[in-house]
Specification:
- The chain is an all-alpha fold.
- It folds into 2 domains: 49 residues; 58 residues.
- 85% of the residues lie in helices and 0% in strands.
- 0% of the residues are buried.
- This is MYO5B protein.
Length: 151
């Protein structure tokens, strides 16, 4: 019981420490938001004291600054997406090469060793013919046929 209580106490202490760190982070965030709000209020009061032309110019400068930051964010996003596109194109080339290699290796394998193609042909034959309980197969395919019937 005592080791269990110690474990619970250690977990409680860890949770308390995490909670205190989180509260401290939130307090810092609130302080930063307060400072930002105070700066915005001061800027707003200063613009009210300006002439109408100066207010328009200040508003334009503020909008230009906002759009510049937004433009920079969009450029970063675009660069990230371009890098991702290049990465995906490289992967696509690799996979296309693997598919071509696989297809080339399938054409070099003799037909007797390609059970999938023979199975596909048999499926096509079943659609074309009307079977009445008989099955045609090659003698060398008998173990494969038995295994497929069992599974």
């Amino acid at each position: 019981v005592v080791p269990f209580l110690r474990l619970l106490e250690a977990q409680l202490q860890e949770q308390k420490k995490q909670h205190e760190e989180e509260v401290e982070g939130l307090r810092n965030e609130v302080e930063a938001l307060k400072e930002g709000m105070e700066k915005q209020q001061q800027a707003f009061l200063q613009t009210l004291q300006l002439s109408p032309e100066a207010q328009v110019e200040f508003g334009l400068q503020h909008e230009i600054t906002r759009l510049t930051y937004e433009n920079l964010d969009l450029k970063e996003l675009m660069e990230k997406l371009e890098r991702n596109e290049k990465k995906l194109k490289r992967q696509l080339k690799i996979y296309m090469k693997k598919v071509q290699d696989f297809e080339a290796s399938q054409t070099t394998v003799p037909p007797e060793r390609r059970p999938h193609e023979r199975n596909m042909q048999a499926a096509v034959q079943r659609k074309e013919k009307d079977f009445q309980g008989m099955l045609e197969y090659y003698k060398e395919d008998e173990p494969l046929l038995i295994r497929n019937l069992i599974t």
